[in-house]
Amino acid sequence: MVLAQLGGSISRALQQMSNATVIDEKVLNECLNEISRALLQSDVQFKLVRDMQTNIKKIVNLDDLAAGHNKRKIIQQIGVDKVLGQTVLLYWEGVSPNGVAIFNELCKILDPGKPSFTPKKGKTSVIMFVGLQGCGKTTSCTKYAYYHQKKGWKPALVCADTFRAGAFDQLKQNATKAKIPFYGSYMESDPATIAVEGVERFKKENCDLIIVDTSGRHKQEAALFEEMRQVSEATKPDLVIFVMDSSIGQAAFDQAQAFKKSVSVGAVIVTKMDGHAKGGGALSAVAATKSPVIFIGTGEHMDEFEVFDAKPFVSRLLG
Ligand code: GDP
């Protein structure tokens, strides 16, 4: 991994530390502050960054720092034992390995240790999408369906959003454009009823990927979570995907956790990665839901959707 790929602030901070003749508390603090600033600017949760900083300081042997010698030993002691709930060890000497260590460890944070449920072609799976209003849920449902359709699946879309006027029309329009069968109702006001009707219909039609789009709210509300619980209870989804806007910033952890408490979120999709936001909230969402990011949205169009790859994501985060 070349330094340039690791982006600006963090690699610069590490380089400064490596170049210092003596690593004392001041040099260490400057380095940690620089790394923390970069992670905060990328929307990684404040508490997690602070914990990381505290943990590193605890691990470093201050006596060695005071003596101001044995640089290599000190550097190797610098570890992070807990970052976002994951055990992490960092040590470095020289510029490039430093960056690689941090880079790899951030990638590991994005890996909750177990893959999400993976639907199988030809076998019916019900996938429920949840998220706040405007996060890109309906768009991502269609993208997810379209992505699989291109690979020979038989997807179908169910609109269980009775809260937002126009939600069904939007899904209908997207589905029609992609030639994907859809189900919804202008009359029925109970989302769980519509969801069940849609799922049953598409099961009969032997669709192998039945995608249930649910409603959102502008903020986390008890009514929304109760509704999600009911839809989930009624449709028994194989996978619940939490959709988050890459720009939600520091709110990501609480938001993801709130959804996880009402339904069993098993995967994350991060949208609007084509914008300015770096999407550091994704690390929080992974930590809060213990679920991996599976796709990212990179534009408004149907095919602007990519399988998540931690490496370019982390490069961007550190940049
Ligand atoms: P929902 O309320 O969560 O269902 O959100 P929508 O799917 O209606 O999306 C809200 C807005 O975000 C729409 O204007 C979408 O076109 C837009 N959007 C969704 N995903 C992306 C994305 O990955 N990139 C960009 N630039 N816009 C997106």
From TrEMBL:
Tell me which Gene Ontology terms the entry assigns under biological process. Answer: SRP-dependent cotranslational protein targeting to membrane, translocation
Compartment(s) of residence: Cytoplasm; Endoplasmic reticulum
User: Which domain of life does this protein belong to?
Assistant: Eukaryota
**Coiled-coil ranges (or none):** none
Show where the SRP54-type proteins GTP-binding domain sits.
Answer: 292-305
According to UniProt, the reaction catalysed is: GTP + H2O = GDP + phosphate + H(+)
Mind telling me which GO cellular component terms the entry cites?
A: cytosol; endoplasmic reticulum; signal recognition particle, endoplasmic reticulum targeting
Q: What keywords are annotated for this sequence in UniProt?
A: Cytoplasm, Endoplasmic reticulum, GTP-binding, Hydrolase, Nucleotide-binding, Ribonucleoprotein, RNA-binding, Signal recognition particle
TM helices/strands, residue ranges: none
Write out the GO MF terms.
Answer: 7S RNA binding; endoplasmic reticulum signal peptide binding; GTP binding; GTPase activity
- Manganese as a keyword of this entry, yes or no, is no
> Could you say which protein family the record assigns here?
Belongs to the GTP-binding SRP family. SRP54 subfamily.
Q: What does this protein do?
A: Component of the signal recognition particle (SRP) complex, a ribonucleoprotein complex that mediates the cotranslational targeting of secretory and membrane proteins to the endoplasmic reticulum (ER). As part of the SRP complex, associates with the SRP receptor (SR) component SRPRA to target secretory proteins to the endoplasmic reticulum membrane. Binds to the signal sequence of presecretory proteins when they emerge from the ribosomes. Displays basal GTPase activity, and stimulates reciprocal GTPase activation of the SR subunit SRPRA.
Q: What is known of its domains?
A: The NG domain, also named G domain, is a special guanosine triphosphatase (GTPase) domain, which binds GTP and forms a guanosine 5'-triphosphate (GTP)-dependent complex with a homologous NG domain in the SRP receptor subunit SRPRA. The two NG domains undergo cooperative rearrangements upon their assembly, which culminate in the reciprocal activation of the GTPase activity of one another. SRP receptor compaction upon binding with cargo-loaded SRP and GTPase rearrangement drive SRP-mediated cotranslational protein translocation into the ER.
Its quaternary organisation is:
Component of a signal recognition particle (SRP) complex that consists of a 7SL RNA molecule of 300 nucleotides and six protein subunits: SRP72, SRP68, SRP54, SRP19, SRP14 and SRP9.
Q: What is this protein called?
A: Signal recognition particle 54 kDa protein
* The species this protein was found in: Coptis chinensis
Of the intact sequence, the residues represented are 1 to 319 of 508
